[in-house]
Amino acid sequence: MTRRFFFSRLLAAFAVAAFALSSGIPAEAKEKPLKVAAVYTVPVEQQWVSRIHLALKAAEARGDITYKFSENVANTDYERVMREYAEQGSDMIFGEAFAVEKAARKVAADYPKIAFVLGSSFKPEEPNFSVFDNYIQEASYLSGLVAGKATKSNKIGLVGGFPIPEVNRLMNAFMAGVKEVNPDATFTVTFIGSWYDPPKAKEAAFAMIDAGADVLYAERFGVSDAAKERGVKAIGNVIDTAKDYPGVVLASALWHFEPTADYAIKQVLDGTYKAEDVGKYSEMKVGGASLAPLDPALVPADVIELVKAKEKAILDGSFKVQVVDTEPKP
Amino acid sequence: MSDLFDIITAAAFWSAAIRIATPLIFGTLGELICERAGVLNLGIEGIFTAGAMSGWMTVYLGGDLWTGVLVAALVGAGFGLLHAVLTVPLGLSQHVTGLGITLLATSASYFTYRIAFPNVSSPPRIEPFQPISIPGLSDLPFIGPALFQQTPLTYFAVFLVIVVAYILARTPLGLAIRASGENPAAVDSQGLSVYGLRIGAVMAGSAIMAVGGSFLTLSAFNAFFFEMIAGRGWICIALVVFASWKPGKALLGALLFGAFDALQVRLQQSMGGAIPYQLFLMLPYVLSILALVIMSRRAAYPNALMIPFIKGQRS
To answer: What percent of chain A has pLDDT over 70?
Structure first.
């Protein structure tokens, strides 16, 4: 083989490869079970992540996927863990890109055949980076109606982790709900600068109760505990904690990740997966969000009626809850 | 400004400050004992975690609350022993070993928790310590609700400060511990075992740290979470310097930090979004650094701190 011949062969090979990459290989349908991996920056007990974990567990139980996950991964380590799952031949990778947007998008670009479905406040990215978030502001709004009617001091306290869009959006919707039924209500908002420091969240809640708040919006663990100890009410968020705090939690806006997960998994199985914003699968009308059943012993009948009417208006599209992602300022 | 005045004259504020300070009192006291004997213990953050986990787990599995505290102390002493064996007779770097202990104890705690609870969506809970009133004292106006409606571990923390202060300052044992941190050769020449004293001090100190960790899961809260220690151990390292290695001042420093933290939460709420919340979160740390700068000018650290003792070696 002459050297010139060798080079021309090499060039041709490169050309073919480049063509294949640029034109995009059409996605093909895949067999069950898909190999799914998830990378979480917090433990699977954390409210937000627990919903994803639950939905993927359910998909695994159905036999649609095999499910592996890494929890409590530091942001600085996130990219490495993603790459390891990508190298192991995963078909899909779930996770949260909030603090690692750049790195996560880089990994996705390096593995164009893997479907990346990540929590993100930004846009989807071709060809394989889909985004979702807990767009449950409708349910949060409804829980706000309950809170606005329940407060006697007209002071409502909100304790959150960090003011990022997924937190702000729900707080803002909750506050809009309160204002709808109780224009005199005032709010105090505290961020504790941690996702996972219940003693600190509890202290923040105590301080609100000391200042007169009688309904607390429990974005973090620890808030409902303070409410229970001091005999005030709490509103749950993302998960249903009514059983853990009987008589304390009046209403909870729940997130159901199943519609999002199932949609994305089906797309990959069918070979029709593409990068898109799957946030709409967290809306109430597709079952992505709901208000936990209200207890007539805690919530007056007329308030339950009011909530039901609003819920109906949301479901038939005659009422829209605004999405406000900016930091709530009372 | 009137806001500030209202905040710090409320009994509930001081009650919160003491509650927040309690784990720091244990941690600072434990670290102080280690350092007075000449051993820096950077395993503190991990030992906090191990104490929080093991104490909580004991109660969850059916032990009573005080058994949980005891188990936490024993686990802490165990990690203390490991740290001491590596740094005292073997004379390894106290920085590296301590950080290693923190990594080991933290990971071992998380691992144990996950093995025990592979599938929980909401963390399992226990019935924690309840605040107890002290007859007579708790009914005093202002002082009662501020100081005397705490959980038992808080009273225990203050009691422990007094005991440790007495032992260190007034007993032969305390003298020997202090001497092994100042001039171990002199201790050795008296026929006392420097190794024994240092190992014992590190184990006792680590046990106290672990009890501080267990306060978070048995008293301040009722469940164990990953990462819930959130740097409290590191704050104790700084508080020891603030305290100039003296138990009484350690108590004061921890209370000051607790007060700053209670203050920032309340200011954040009363100033209502006019100032970015991050500034408030920063407040206790900034004020502590300022206090540290002022206090540490006169601080004299133990002379033999971080210097391994090798018998017969000339210094």
So the answer is: 92
Dihedral sign computed on CA atoms, order B156, B157, B160, B166: negative
SS3 B264: helix
* B261 and chain A in contact, CB less than 8 A: yes
- Sorted by where each starts, the structural domains of chain B and their CATH numbers stand as 2-115+144-298 (1.10.3470)
| Tokens found for residue B214 | 């267990």
Reported as a single tens digit per residue, the pLDDT across A228-280 is 999 999 999 999 988 889 999 999 999 999 999 999 999 999 999 999 999 99
Query: Which residues from B are below 8 Å from A45, CB to CB?
Result: 120-123, 225
Q: Which of residues 226-255 of B touch A (CB under 8 A)?
A: 226-228, 230
A33 preceded by a cis bond (ω within 30 of 0): yes
Q: What is the pLDDT of residue A1?
A: 47
CB of B40 within 8 A of CB of B216? no
What ipTM did this prediction achieve? 0.90
| DSSP label at residue A218 | E
Placement of tokens 């003296």 in the chain: B246
Residues B55 and B267: beta-carbon distance below 8 Å: no
- Structural contact between residues A68 and A85, judged by C-beta atoms closer than 8 angstroms: yes
Distance CA B79, CA B42 (A): 11
pLDDT score for B1 = 53
Helix/strand/coil percent split, chain B, to 5: 70, 0, 30
HSE value, Cβ hemisphere, 13 Å, CA-based, for B292: 15
Q: Answer whether residue A119 shows pLDDT above 70.
A: yes
Rounded to whole angstroms, how far apart are CA atoms B221 and B198?
Answer: 33
Spell out which residues of chain B touch residue A229, defining contact as CB-CB under 8 Å: none
Residue of B7, B49, B260, B265 best to disrupt the A interface, most CBs of A under 10 A: B265
The verdict on B71 touching A (C-beta cutoff 8 Å) is no
pLDDT of residue B176: 97
Q: How far apart are the first and last CA of chain B?
A: 56
| Structure letter (DSSP) for residue A32 | S
Give the whole-angstrom CA distance, residue B67 versus residue B58: 7
Q: Report whether A174 contacts A238 (CB < 8 A).
A: no
Task: Find the mean pLDDT for residues A48-54.
Answer: 93
Cα–chain center distance at A47:
9
Q: Do A189 and B273 touch (CB under 8 A)?
A: yes
Q: Can you tell me the distance from the alpha carbon of B264 to that of B17, in angstroms, rounded to the nearest whole number? A: 11
Q: DSSP string of A238-290?
A: ES--TTTSTTTEEEEEEE--HHHHHHHHHHHHHT-----BGGGGGSGGGTSEE
Rounded CA separation B67/B59 (Å) = 7
The pTM score is: 0.89
Strands in A233-238's sheet, in edge-to-edge order, are A186-191, A155-160, A215-218, A233-238, A249-255, A289-291
Q: Alpha-carbon distance B84 to B197, whole Å?
A: 10
What span, in angstroms and rounded, lies between the C-alpha atoms of A40 and A70?
A: 6
Instruction: Name the β-bridge partners of B296.
Output: none
- Domains, chain A, ordered by start: 34-133+257-282 (3.40.50.2300), 137-256+287-315 (3.40.50.2300)
B121 and A45 in contact by Cβ < 8 A? yes
